[in-house]
């Protein structure tokens, strides 16, 4: 995620400074924790079974992970290098729009919703291919 050159799963989702900054903004891990995650699966496992995150917290984690990954790829291909806080805020805004859409059946913005969900599925497939089965 950063310029450290480390691309292990543990670095990408836990040790990386940019990722730690994002998790701090989401306030979902206890401060000064000494938990270690070696993979994204470990992190999700912790959230679901130990920290008992609710659906929204899980969605936040997934969307922010996706946004950080996307931002990293954009920066690598010469695109804008966004700050972590902007990346996180944009991702949460995007998620809020999606949730408003889903909750309001009158809007019927089905195409947009499907497009979003398709991207989430693509994210999970890409993560699985990159880091082994989720
Ligand atoms: Zn990094």
Structural description of this entry:
The structure is a single chain. The protein has one domain. Helices cover 69% and strands 0% of the residues. It contains six helices and no strands. The structure holds zinc ion. The site of zinc ion has 7 residues, from loops.
Terminal CA distance? 20 Å
Order of helices and strands: HHHHHH
Number of helices: 6
By secondary-structure content and strand pairing, the structural class works out as mainly alpha
Task: Give the structure's gist in a few sentences.
With 134 residues, this protein is an all-alpha fold.
Question: What features would you highlight for this structure?
Answer:
6 helices, single chain, binds zinc ion, 134 residues
Per-chain topology:
Blueprint: H1 9-15, H2 17-26, H3 40-50, H4 55-76, H5 84-103, H6 110-131
Zinc ion binds near residues 2, 4, 6, 11 and 18.
């Amino acid at each position: 995620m950063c310029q450290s050159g480390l691309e292990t799963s543990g670095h990408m989702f836990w040790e990386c400074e940019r990722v730690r900054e994002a998790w701090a903004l989401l306030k979902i891990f206890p401060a000064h924790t000494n938990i270690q995650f070696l993979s994204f699966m470990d992190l999700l496992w912790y959230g679901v079974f130990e920290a008992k995150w609710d659906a929204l917290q899980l969605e936040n984690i997934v969307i922010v992970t996706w946004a950080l990954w996307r931002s990293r790829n954009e920066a690598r291909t010469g695109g804008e290098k966004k700050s972590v806080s902007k990346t996180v805020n944009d991702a949460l805004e995007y998620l809020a729009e999606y949730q408003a859409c889903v909750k309001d059946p009158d809007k019927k913005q089905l195409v947009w919703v499907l497009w979003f969900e398709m991207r989430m599925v693509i994210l999970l497939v890409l993560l699985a291919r990159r880091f082994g089965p989720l």
